[in-house]
Design a protein that fits this description.
The chain is mainly α and 202 residues long. The chain contains ten helices and no strands. Helix 3 packs parallel to helix 8, helix 8 crosses helix 9 and helix 9 runs antiparallel to helix 10. The radius of gyration is 18 Å and the shape is globular. InterPro entries: Homeodomain-like_sf, HTH_TetR, Tet_transcr_reg_TetR-rel_C_sf.
């Protein structure tokens, strides 16, 4: 039975959404196409009607994370705090750490992406550039060297989250998040508890 163009588009979005979650949770190699399609509620054979290969889907999940600014602006609009503070507190929160499937592309898949095809790495790089550009607009202080500070901030955020997930000591994990949060926000952050709010997904 032939599906409508609208239904085909909806099915494709469902595949991309489910793949984004599963790739973040299990890594690219940990997700088989058959399992992905089953999770999306679609048939295995239907996959290749949407994508030429699993690598093409991987690239699209990276590119689909590119609307980072809109999602973070929506989150920051709900809070009476500077956007940079909201970003740091939400990104380095225990909830973000504990829910990789609904969190940041960079913290979940950077190591995997480094081993992938140029197509996947190009899509990832484009999304990362947008993340850095957003931080550059929000980072406090003078405009001089904002890009450099934004790159350092992005690296600190991602690195801290990766390490906090990797260690098997819960106390050390929280200590990593707290230390980087305080470093990025300054001494006043020591009196600010970690937010448990859901982070914007990249």
């Amino acid at each position: 039975m032939r599906v409508s163009r609208e239904q085909a588009a909806a099915n494709r979005r469902r595949i991309v959404t489910e793949a984004s979650r599963l790739f973040r949770e299990k890594g690219y190699d940990g997700v088989a196409v058959a399992d992905l399609m089953k999770s999306a509620g679609l048939t295995h054979g239907g996959f290749y009607g949407h994508f030429e290969s699993k690598e093409a889907l991987m690239a699209e999940t990276c590119a689909s994370s590119g609307d980072i600014r809109t999602r973070w602006e929506r989150l920051t609009a709900k809070r009476q705090q500077p956007p940079f503070q909201v970003l740091v507190e939400q990104y380095l929160s225990p909830r973000h750490r504990d829910q990789p499937g609904h969190g940041c592309l960079f913290a979940a898949l950077s190591v995997d992406t480094a081993r992938q095809t140029q197509e996947v790495r190009r899509a990832y790089t484009g999304t990362f550039r947008k993340f850095v550009d957003m931080i550059a607009d929000w980072v406090p202080g003078r405009r001089a060297n904002r890009r450099r500070r934004a790159l350092a901030t992005a690296s600190s955020l991602v690195g801290a989250l990766v390490l906090s997930r990797a260690v098997d000591d819960p106390e050390l994990s929280s200590e990593i998040l707290d230390a980087v949060r305080q470093q990025l926000l300054g001494a006043t952050a020591s009196a600010t508890p970690a937010s448990s709010g859901k982070p914007a997904k990249e």
